[in-house]
């Protein structure tokens, strides 16, 4: 609940800081008193909500499971949403009023708008009264702060861990490697005390794995004493120490020794004294923060007896306490292991745990849904074990799984265990995580996409410390992965995570919370048949046309995944989007922008990519709050001059790919920008626009630019372009294309770009040589050069780029030989050499390209032999060949085959027009470049 208040309080602060009176104009006398009263009342409400937020954060853990407290929280949430509605309505009206002076003078006195202004004070009064009643209700039902110990940790009964479901080691399935490694670490002869950590999401079996080793008699005999304690989310320091003493020392001795009244420091001294000359094994199960270790570290003496301390945790920052990388990160079970474990539980009464044939299909679906999570497999399997083995009954259970997780007491431990991670999130992360759950099952969440959505929704903090909100959002994602709530599935060439997924059952449990708290709804998800009018966010996955009614005032995000709906439905339903902040119609079947869009004054994010939209109306100038405009793969060929009025725009994407293989100079289409781009001072990414002499001079005003794609560059104004680029200190990605194959690009006047990491340069270079400036690009990780007309071997000119990870040369060199010397390109992972018609020799010395994984040769018709040096690249595991000569192919399969025997994946597609090559283009390899679907994300994304 505190997270809802967190978002509302941020909105209040922003709204009070924007100066609505100044935006509207002081000549509008009628509005002034209303706005002044509004700001005064909002400051008072802000204070009340701040206190509420602090109170809830203080008592939430103490009141876990208290139905009266939960009911009170629901009312607090409703009040917070009412305040948010008032703030957003206020922002809508002030932006509408400020649209143009003539518009406001003409419209303000009309009954509708005047009534809306007059309604604000009434709504505020009602909210103030409800806040007052909240305090009275809290006192009436005794919702107060309990006694808190000095460590600010509240003591609650420990919840049973996942080991409660696997009490018998004979029932364990999987994790054999991890158990073996843990056993080896515990038995190794090492004098110093060793701290070992087991990391993983809730329900993976961390406690079960640890317990199986802890109970091993050989291990127990190795140690003089041992103890197992559950640290829990809300441990009390003194009680934790007393429990350790109880297990280490005789129970009667601990009772008569006065330990119950000892201070923390005295308890630490008692444990130190007892362990001083003993080899001990202590397990700290379910550790949630590093603070728990701070004082225990002193209690567990380093006595050079070979003692071991083992912690289990869901948080990476806690696991990092383990020295010398003594960390085991548990993963989900393989499907075969999952099936074995499920059958052991669901069919334990049958011989050999055999699944009845009539249930096989449904059982496999249930196991697949568990996605290798042992807690879920065991719990669901145990629940089904006493159901009738009838197909209809199991089908009903499977189809109602979301409801079962929320309401079936037999499955409550799944949701309880998973919810513990969610409840541990700070306010600024919780809403972000709820947002992730709204995406479809197994959806690959792109880092840049989710970051923009979070920012548009106001969920990301503007820290004003030099970091952009995009960088803060990236930190949020890192924290969610470190808490084992999101899993990284793809990383870029530099190893930075780019794609994340949420475990199915974590998503199901989180969706239940998102719906209950009116945060958002995933329509079309199993178990979601209707949309409550209180929903703030709506993501439609399927069955959109069955949604006939949509409440207007509360919706803030609308994301459409169902691409089968007719355009008429989209135009009709968009009429109810008054206070929308996020509108995503990607792949929607529309040819023009819905008329209502230009009246969405609060809109921050608009995605019309992959649609048939051809024209952006001049009335887009009204969308002054817009931060993201995505028009990729639409039919938009020019942007009206009014776009330059969108001064809050941060990301502008508008282009289409003509050549998916990127072998031609005009592989990208570009868009004409008709306005004065220098007004877009908040712009960070612009892909891609047509260059002209006015545009290139204006670009210098965009000092925040981080990514730029500019096409049709001519030599006549290139000096002005270089001058503008040097005024972008944060520029990290640059795509620059010449206007045609004959245009010569001179880079002599370009100064170093200190933060450049990606450079894509297409067009002839002056003098047919790599510019000396390239020696300054020390941070470059990705380099692509197309049709550069280089006359000398360029490889040596790139060899100093020690951080280079991707190198792609398309028709860039007209010579006959390329040479890779020893110790060059130590980090290069991908090398593409394409369309060099004269190239007949590639020399690769032993000791070069020592990290290469992917090698592509395309259109090298004059290369007859497989480069001998490929045999030295032991890391190479993928090799792709297209449009190569018949002689090369014959030698690859024959006399030169020994050179490539170590490469596990070699694909020769013959002609680029062949069905095999076309299939490859749509395969996972190129999908990583362009995203899921046909081309759902561009290579610059």
UniProtKB/TrEMBL annotation:
Domain Disease resistance R13L4/SHOC-2-like LRR: from-to ranges: 555-864
A Pfam family that the UniProt record links to this protein: WHD_DRP
InterPro entries per the UniProt record, alphabetical: Apaf_helical, Disease_R_plants, LRR_dom_sf, LRR_R13L4/SHOC2-like, NB-ARC, P-loop_NTPase, RX-like_CC, Rx_N
Domain Disease resistance N-terminal intervals: 20-103
Residues covered by the NB-ARC domain: 179-350
Ranges for domain Disease resistance protein winged helix: 438-508
Coiled coil in keyword set: yes
Gene3D superfamilies: 1.20.5.4130, Helical domain of apoptotic protease-activating factors, P-loop containing nucleotide triphosphate hydrolases, Ribonuclease Inhibitor, Winged helix-like DNA-binding domain superfamily/Winged helix DNA-binding domain
SUPFAM superfamilies recorded: L domain-like (SSF52058), P-loop containing nucleoside triphosphate hydrolases (SSF52540)
Record keywords: Coiled coil, Leucine-rich repeat, Nucleotide-binding, Plant defense, Repeat
PANTHER family xrefs: DISEASE RESISTANCE PROTEIN RP, OS07G0186500 PROTEIN
Annotated family: Belongs to the disease resistance NB-LRR family.
Protein name, as recorded: Disease resistance protein RPM1
């Amino acid at each position: 609940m505190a997270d809802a208040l967190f978002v509302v309080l941020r909105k209040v602060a922003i709204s009070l800081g924007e100066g609505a009176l100044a935006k509207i104009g002081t000549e509008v006398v009628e509005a002034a008193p209303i706005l002044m009263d509004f700001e005064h009342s909002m400051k008072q409400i802000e204070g009340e909500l701040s206190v509420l937020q602090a109170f809830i954060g203080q008592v939430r853990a103490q009141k876990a499971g208290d139905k009266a407290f939960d009911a009170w929280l629901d009312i607090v949430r409703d009040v917070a949403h009412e305040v948010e509605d008032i703030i957003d309505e206020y922002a809508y009206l002030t932006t509408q009023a400020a649209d143009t002076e003539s518009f406001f003078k003409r419209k303000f006195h009309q009954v509708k708008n005047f009534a809306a202004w007059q309604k604000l004070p009434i709504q505020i009064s009602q909210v103030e009264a409800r806040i007052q009643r909240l305090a009275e209700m809290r006192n009436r039902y005794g919702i107060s702060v309990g006694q808190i110990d000095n460590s600010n940790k509240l003591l609650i009964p420990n919840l049973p861990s996942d080991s409660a479901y696997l009490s018998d080691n004979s029932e364990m399935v999987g994790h054999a490697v991890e158990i073996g490694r843990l056993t080896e670490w515990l038995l190794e002869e090492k004098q110093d005390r060793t701290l070992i950590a087991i990391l993983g999401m809730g329900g993976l079996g961390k406690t079960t794995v640890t317990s199986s080793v802890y109970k091993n008699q050989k291990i127990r005999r190795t140690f003089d004493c041992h103890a197992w304690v559950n640290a829990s989310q809300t441990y009390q320091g003194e009680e934790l120490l007393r429990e350790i003493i109880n297990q280490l020392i005789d129970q009667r001795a601990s009772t008569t020794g006065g330990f119950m009244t000892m201070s923390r420091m005295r308890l630490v001294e008692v444990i130190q004294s007892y362990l001083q000359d003993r080899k001990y094994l202590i397990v700290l199960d379910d550790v949630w923060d590093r603070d728990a270790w701070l004082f225990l570290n002193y209690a567990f003496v380093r006595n050079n007896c070979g003692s071991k301390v083992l912690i289990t945790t869901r948080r990476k920052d806690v696991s990092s306490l383990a020295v010398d990388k003594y960390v085991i990160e548990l993963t989900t079970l393989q499907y075969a292991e999952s099936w074995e474990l499920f059958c052991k539980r669901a069919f334990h009464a049958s011989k050999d745990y055999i699944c009845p044939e009539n249930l096989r299909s449904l059982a496999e679906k249930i196991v697949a849904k568990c996605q290798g999570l042992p807690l879920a497999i065991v719990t669901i399997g145990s629940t089904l074990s006493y159901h009738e083995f009838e197909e209809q009954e199991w089908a009903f259970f499977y189809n109602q799984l979301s409801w079962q997780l929320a309401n079936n007491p037999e499955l409550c431990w799944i949701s309880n265990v998973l919810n513990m991670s969610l409840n541990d999130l700070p306010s600024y992360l919780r809403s972000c995580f709820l947002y992730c759950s709204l995406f479809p099952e197994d959806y690959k969440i792109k880092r840049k996409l989710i970051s923009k959505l979070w920012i548009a929704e106001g969920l990301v903090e503007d820290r004003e410390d030099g970091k952009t909100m995009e960088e803060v959002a990236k930190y949020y994602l890192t924290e969610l992965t470190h808490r084992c709530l999101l899993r990284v599935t793809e990383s870029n060439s530099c190893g930075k995570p780019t794609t994340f997924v949420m475990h199915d059952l974590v998503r199901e449990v989180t969706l239940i919370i998102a719906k209950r708290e009116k945060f958002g709804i995933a329509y079309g998800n199993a178990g979601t048949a209707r949309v409550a009018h209180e929903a703030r966010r709506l993501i439609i996955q399927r069955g959109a046309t069955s949604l006939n009614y949509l409440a207007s005032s509360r919706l803030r995000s609308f994301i459409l995944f169902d691409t089968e709906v007719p355009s008429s439905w989209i135009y009709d339903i968009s009429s109810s989007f008054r206070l929308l902040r996020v509108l995503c119609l990607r792949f929607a079947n529309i040819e023009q922008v819905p008329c209502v869009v230009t009246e969405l004054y609060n809109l921050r994010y608009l995605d019309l990519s992959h649609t048939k939209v051809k024209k952006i109306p001049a009335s887009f100038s009204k969308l002054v709050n817009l931060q993201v405009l995505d028009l990729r793969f639409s039919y938009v060929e020019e942007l009206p001059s009014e776009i330059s009025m969108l001064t809050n725009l941060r990301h502008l994407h508008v282009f289409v790919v003509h050549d998916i293989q990127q072998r031609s100079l005009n592989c990208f289409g570009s868009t004409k920008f008709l306005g004065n781009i220098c007004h877009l001072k908040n712009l960070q990414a612009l892909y891609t626009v047509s260059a002209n002499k006015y545009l290139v001079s204006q670009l210098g005003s965009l000092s925040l630019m981080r990514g730029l794609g500019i096409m049709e560059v001519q030599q006549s104004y290139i000096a002005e372009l270089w001058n503008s680029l040097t005024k972008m200190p944060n520029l990290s990605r640059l795509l620059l294309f010449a206007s045609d194959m004959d245009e010569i690009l001179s880079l002599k006047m370009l100064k170093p770009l200190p933060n450049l990491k990606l450079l894509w340069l297409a067009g002839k270079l002056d003098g047919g040589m790599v510019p000396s400036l390239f020696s300054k690009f020390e941070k470059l990780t990705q380099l692509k050069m197309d049709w550069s007309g280089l006359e000398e071997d360029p490889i040596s000119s790139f060899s100093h780029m020690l951080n280079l990870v991707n190198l792609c040369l398309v028709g860039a060199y007209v010579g006959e030989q390329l040479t890779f010397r020893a110790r060059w390109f130590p980090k290069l992972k991908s090398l593409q050499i394409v369309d060099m018609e004269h190239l007949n020799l590639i020399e690769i010395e032993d000791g070069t390209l020592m990290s290469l994984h992917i090698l592509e040769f395309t259109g090298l018709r004059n290369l007859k032999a497989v480069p001998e040096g490929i045999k030295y690249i032991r890391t190479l595991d993928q090799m792709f060949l297209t449009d190569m000569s018949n002689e090369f192919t014959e030698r690859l399969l024959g006399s030169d085959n020994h050179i490539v025997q170590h490469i596990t994946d070699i694909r020769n597609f013959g002609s680029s027009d062949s069905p095999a090559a076309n299939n490859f283009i749509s395969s996972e390899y190129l999908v990583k470049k362009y995203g899921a679907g046909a081309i759902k994300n561009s290579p610059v994304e």
